[in-house]
Write a structure and sequence with these properties.
There is one protein chain. This protein has 123 residues and is an all-alpha fold. Helix content is 87%, strand content 0%. The protein contains four helices and no strands. α2 runs antiparallel to α3 and α3 runs antiparallel to α4. The longest helix has 39 residues.
């Protein structure tokens, strides 16, 4: 494989991100949830450490979704017909997204519930 300039690699990565955004509803849904979580973090004035943890968690979910999309796309390329092993691979890739999303919900509970309870009970 030829060594390509970094700018070209960035262009390919950007094209993949744009394609995923345009074609994958879950990417858009996760991004919307991420924006809402980041806005709530600002409203609640979470510490920079908690906001960094939130960004890492968001990145984990979106990365899992991108990897799931890549796996599904390659499987569809290699075998467009139904095959039980293809289904299994797709299911496992989707499970990775589920695990990441559930972890994100848990992190969200730890980050947001205490300050929300404080705000709701203090006023």
């Amino acid at each position: 494989m030829a060594h390509r300039p970094f700018s070209e690699s960035l262009r390919f990565a950007w094209a993949g991100l744009i394609w995923a955004w345009q074609t994958q509803g879950n990417i858009r849904r996760h991004t919307f949830a991420a924006i809402m979580a980041l806005m709530l973090a600002q409203v609640l004035a979470l510490s920079w450490v908690k906001q960094a943890l939130l960004v890492l968690t968001i990145t984990m979910v979106i990365t899992a979704e991108l990897m799931n999309t890549a796996v599904e796309t390659v499987i569809d390329l290699c075998n467009p017909c139904y095959h039980p092993l293809a289904k299994r691979a797709k299911d496992v890739a989707a499970a990775a997204v589920l695990v990441a999303a559930l972890a994100a919900v848990a992190v969200g509970v730890f980050l947001f519930v205490p300050p929300l309870l404080f705000v709701l009970t203090d006023r």
